[in-house]
Amino acid sequence: MILAIALQNVPEGTSVSIPMESAGFGRTQQFWGAVLTSAPQPVGAVAAYLLVQQVAALLPFSFAFAAGAMLSLVIVELVPQAFTCDGWRRAAAGALVGAIAMLVLAAALGV
Question: What is the pLDDT of residues 13-35, one digit of tens each?
Answer without folding.
Answer: 888 888 888 899 999 999 998 88
